Each structure stands twice: as C-alpha cells, then as structure tokens.
C-alpha cells in the first residue's frame, strides 16, 4: 500500500517530515511512501538523511499553504500546493492514505473536496484521543464541522465506534454525548435531539457525559460538535502545559524543592507519555473516501513515522469499508436525515 | 447591607454553610446575614457553632431543591424551597444579595424569575475565573445561557468589564472572544457576528482567543456561549484533578520518588491555591437585578465566608448600577437587538 506524506506541512517541515518518512519507509518495506513538495528541497533533505529507501517516491508540488492562509482560499488559489497534490494522489487511486502536519483547515477542505465523503456519510469529523486517568477517550469532532446537526453527531458515534474497534481493539466501545448535565433532558437543542438519536441507535450509548467525566472513563468515545471539541482540545493542551510549567517554576525556587523534583522526575514520565502526541502520530479525519491523517503542527520525525503507521492500520483494517456497511445497517430515523 | 445565604444548598450544607455564615457575620459586624432554610436545623447548627452573632437572622423555608431535581420544575413546584425564599428576600428588598451553593440551575432560574434582569440586559451570565500562568481569566458565560445570541455575548463583555474593574481592580480589561482560530473571520455564525459587534463596541476588544491562549494571558475576559463555557470549566476541573492524581500515584510507587514528592510538595502550593475555589468564594450571576453569588457544590465554610465577602463587594461597589449605565452608553447596533 502507498501512503502520501505532505513533505512541506508543519512547523518542522521539511526536515523532520522527510526524516519521519524515511523511517516509516524502512519500517514498512513492503509499502510505499510518496513524498509531495518542492522536489529540490525534498532531495536535499533525503540527502541529509544519508539514505533514500527504494520505496520512497518524490512528487513535485510548487506551492505551500501557509499556516496563516485562510483554508478554503488556499485550496482554491493554490491548486499546486503540496496538500492539494497529496490529496489528489489518494483521489486518483495512486495511494490509499494521506498524512499531513500542515494547515488543518486546508487539509480538511482539500480532503472533503477531492476525496468526497464515504457513501452515506454527511460530514467528515476529526477524532482525537484525550488521555484520561485510566486510558484515553476518543473525542469526535474536534474542528472539521462547526455546523453540526444531530445526524452528523450520530454518524460520528458510528464512525468512531468502528475506529475504536479496529484500531484500539475495544470490543464494544461505549459512546457518550458531551453535555452540560447527566440527566437525559439536559442541554441545547442539538444535544437533546442527538440524545434521542443515539438512544434509538444500535450504538453502545451510555448517555450524557459532562466535561469532568471525560476523565472518569465513563465512555470510550464522546461525540460533540466541532467548535466545542476544538476549543476543548486546545484548552486541555494549554491547561496541561500551564500546570506543569507552574509546578516546575515553583520547584526551581529552592534547593530542596529542586532536589525533590529531580528525585520524582520519573513520576512525570507516564503523564508525559500519555500527553505525547508523537506517540499516536496523528488523528484521523473520519468519513472521507480515503484515509486522511492529520498531524500536530509541531510534529517531529517520530510523529510522522507513527502517523504513517496509523494510516496503514486504517487502510489495512478496512476501516472505511466497515464504516460504509455499518452506516447502511444503522438505525437512522428518516425524519432526521438533514 | 444584608446578604441572604441559602443554608440548605450544597454538598456540605447545612453544617459548613451555617459555619461560614457565622464567620462572615463576625467578619462584617456592620452588615447582616439572613440564613434561609429549615429553622430547627439552622438553630441546631448555630448551637453547634457555639455562638450566634446578633447580625444573623433565620428565615424559615420548609423545602429543599435536591441536586437531581430538574431546575425549572423545582422552582415551579417547590415554591417554599430555601433557594426560592432566599431570592425572594432580595426581590422584596430585605437583602441586597443571595449566596447559594445549591443547585446551580435552580439558583439561576429562581434569580432570573424573581429578580428579573437589570435594565437593558437581555440574558444573565455566570462569570467564572480560570487560573492561568500569570493570573486569572474571567470566562463568561459558563452555563446560565445555552441559547446565546451575539448581543448576549456583547453584553457579557460589558458586564464582565465592569466586574473586573470594580472587583479585580483591572483598569481597562482586555476582552477576547473564545473561538477556534485567531483570524478575524474564523468560527461559526455566532462567533463571526459577535466578533463584528465586539469590534464596533467601546470595549477593549483584543480579538479571538483560542482555547490554548486562555492560559497565555491574552485577555482578562473571554466571552463564550454557556454550553461551551460550562463544558470547558468542568473539563478543566477534571483534567487538573486527573493530572495531579496521576503524578501522585506514580510518585508513590518507589521510595525515591516518594521522597522527591515530599521534598517538592511546597512547589504544588501556589498551584493548589490558584485552583482553590474556596479562595474566591463563588462566581457572580451577572445581569440580574440584585447580586447573586453561585458557590461550588462542594463549598466549605471558608468558601461561604468568602462568597459573602464577594457579595458585599459587588453591592458596595454598585457593580449593577455601573452595568446599567454602561449598557446605556454602549454602542449596540440596532439591527442586532435580538
């Protein structure tokens, strides 16, 4: 199978992205990596790596979408950007998946435009794992769709269930609805209507989940609309960093606390590992006709390598095929098909 | 001035609530505390305190709103509940403020129903401080209004600005709009329309603030609709607890890390203080015609005492009067008056 990597996307591109691609190519010698971007730049970076595995191919793209470019504008204007060319290679069947650490909005827009949605899917959604006390909670959507309807959220529940089953090996994932109270009738109109749809679905729906309860492992999956999910994800990142830096800054103020921090340094290890996005590589944009893995803007070579692994896992486990067949079976009341 | 305290509200009521009220009565001998709830229960708790300051008065209320009662139902059915009686004492002018650690939804509903909104205010909103790296960020609304319109959010900006000026002493508070990107044109319809209103207002508007940026002190105030704010606040609480308990559990696994944690224990102090809701006592429901302080459900006597202090501060600084006059001056485009 062949995976496209947008060599120009991300704060650490092209160096770390190319390096991660080389490692992925070495890790998966039977698969192929298509590196898309400025040919000369990629060749220079490959030379810097000291080796170019034979399963790496370069595809030239003359433009790059900047992090400050508006998403739809850049897709329309920069038709030869590395992200558009990358997605087109999946759309034309030359590759099964695309990996990008570039502009998230542009990646979502390009994928939705060129790959289109899977049969039966109304809107694609990004599923991101949030580390909890005992494991992770998959939150969907975290920013692809900020005009969510109840049916979109129901479909997110279906898609994330398949993803959790085939990628995380969870047999019967518990699906929760992010809400502002535990009681059935809580929340805004979107939450109330979604609650009713989820209750009547074949999903393992466990009811409303409050912000606090995400960490109590009440559900394996939490569905929410993209605006809320995006704010939540970034808020969590900011809060974690703020907490850890406050502890560190305080501990550096005296000899004994500094010594203490040094001694208990290893206690922070599992936490850092949990929070380390480079471990899981990237998050999937579920619902598009092809595999699309969105990486953190600060992705390094390890993150890219792991993102390629995740892309291959999704493709080899036929996650998209399972989503289509599950949606066909799913109990979706016709009245709500909007 | 007289402050009503709902003696029956909160997980630690009536004991801690009555104890906190006694301390507040001693701290503010020139003001009065009206304790509302089951007369016999309050008398018993006052006896347990060993002293009943002469500026404490008991008002009997036979019913209590349970934490599981639906908010509006309980307000309509339990007309003699401690929260309804408390709010009525403010509405009738017998007191200037109400403090409750009980059912938040019921407190908001009773206050909105009996106190009504301040002149010019469309919807009341709850303003909660979130500890950041360098101070706090006041987030409004965190759950009073889950059907927000742009004008509501603009008014939240105005009300929180007054509150920050008179309570926190910030001269010209910077107001931000919670959004999913920094660029002006980002976000859903609500965010886009609110951005335009805030840009044209007399507020010190600093633009969009992403979830992560709340911790970077980009703004003193962040406005958002109540569903998002509520989810965020609870998510933050869950995440903080999850992080700290993970570190502690890991540190307890070996002798050296345990010793290290003991030595650097004091480094966690400022963090705990920042996160300690009992310090700031309670959060205001801004926009109702009277002062309403909502306390955390787990409030102890210290939190109640501080909440009474905050209630008196709001009343003595005439925060509501300033809100009314500021809204009259505010630049609110007529087309958006919805």
From TrEMBL, chains A, B:
Supply the alphabetized keyword list.
Acyltransferase, Cytoplasm, Lipid biosynthesis, Lipid metabolism, Phospholipid biosynthesis, Phospholipid metabolism, Transferase
Per the record, the pathway is: Lipid metabolism; phospholipid metabolism
Q: What is any Pfam family matched here?
A: FA_synthesis
The record's SUPFAM superfamilies line, in alphabetical order, gives: Isocitrate/Isopropylmalate dehydrogenase-like
Q: Name one GO molecular function term.
A: acyltransferase activity
Report the domain of life of the source organism. Answer: Bacteria
Can the keyword Cytoplasm be found in this entry's annotation? yes
Entry-linked InterPro entries: FA_synthesis, Phospholipid_synth_PlsX-like
- Location in or out of the cell: Cytoplasm
Q: What is its EC number?
A: 2.3.1.274
- General function of this protein: Catalyzes the reversible formation of acyl-phosphate (acyl-PO(4)) from acyl-[acyl-carrier-protein] (acyl-ACP). This enzyme utilizes acyl-ACP as fatty acyl donor, but not acyl-CoA.
Similarity annotation: Belongs to the PlsX family.
**Assembly description:** Homodimer. Probably interacts with PlsY.
Descriptive protein name = Phosphate acyltransferase
Q: From which source organism is this entry? A: Candidatus Brocadia sinica JPN1
Q: Encoded by which gene?
A: plsX
């Amino acid at each position: 199978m062949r995976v496209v990597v947008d060599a120009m996307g991300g704060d650490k591109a092209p160096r770390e992205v190319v390096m991660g691609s080389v490692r992925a190519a070495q890790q998966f010698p039977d698969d192929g990596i298509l590196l898309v971007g400025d040919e000369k730049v990629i060749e220079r970076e490959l030379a810097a790596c000291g080796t170019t595995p034979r399963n790496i191919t370069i595809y030239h793209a003359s433009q790059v979408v900047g992090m400050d470019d508006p998403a739809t504008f850049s897709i329309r204007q920069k038709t030869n950007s590395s992200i558009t060319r990358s997605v087109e290679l999946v759309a034309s069947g030359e590759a099964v998946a695309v990996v990008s650490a570039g502009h998230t909005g542009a990646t979502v827009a390009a994928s939705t435009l060129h790959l289109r949605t899977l049969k039966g899917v109304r809107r694609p959604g990004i599923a991101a794992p949030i580390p909890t006390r005992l494991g992770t909670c998959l939150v969907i959507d975290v920013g692809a769709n900020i005009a969510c309807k109840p049916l979109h959220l129901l479909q997110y529940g279906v898609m994330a269930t398949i993803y959790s089953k085939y990628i995380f090996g969870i047999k019967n994932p518990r699906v929760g609805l992010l809400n502002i109270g535990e009681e059935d009738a809580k929340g805004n109109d979107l939450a109330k209507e979604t609650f009713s749809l989820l209750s009547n679905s074949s999903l393992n729906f466990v009811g409303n989940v409050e912000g606090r309860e995400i960490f109590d492992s009440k559900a394996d999956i939490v569905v929410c609309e993209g605006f809320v999910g995006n704010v939540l994800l970034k808020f969590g990142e900011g809060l974690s960093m703020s907490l850890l830096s406050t502890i560190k800054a305080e501990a550096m103020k005296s000899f004994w606390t500094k010594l203490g921090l040094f001694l208990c340094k290893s206690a922070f290890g599992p936490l850092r590992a949990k929070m380390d996005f480079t471990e899981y590589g990237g998050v999937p944009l579920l619902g598009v006709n092809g595999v699309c893995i969105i990486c953190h803007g600060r992705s390094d070579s390890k993150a890219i390598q792991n993102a390629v692994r995740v892309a291959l896992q999704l493709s080899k486990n036929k996650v998209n095929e399972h989503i289509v067949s599950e949606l066909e079976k799913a109990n979706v009341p016709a009245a709500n098909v909007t």
